[in-house]
What does this fold into?
Amino acid sequence: MVEKSRLEEIKELVALEPNDTFCRYALGMEYMGISEFEEAIRHFEEVIRLDPSYAAAYFQAGLASQKNHNIPGAKEYLSKGIEVADKKGDRHARDEMRSALENLEGLD
It folds into this structure.
């Protein structure tokens, strides 16, 4: 019997529960881990569509965009994520995204 990879397992979970933001976020993170940034962004965008207040999805979409050489896109995700985190009172997420955004200044 062949063991399934973690990626395959999470893909199956998402197929069963496509609106589960936690599973979809985990799938995006798996794609980040194997440097498939466009696929990661696609899943983070779906998390954001399903739950616009999911601050971590904006942060990861920003990082994936940066790694995919899309600095304007990264800035957009991070800026929106800062707004979302601020509204939720999530100072840690807000500050983390602010720092990431500052690191992108002058890169586009």
User: Anything to note?
Assistant: The chain is about 75% helix and 0% strand. Helices lie at 6-16, 21-33, 37-50, 55-67, 71-88, 91-104. Residues 71-88 form the longest helix (18 residues).
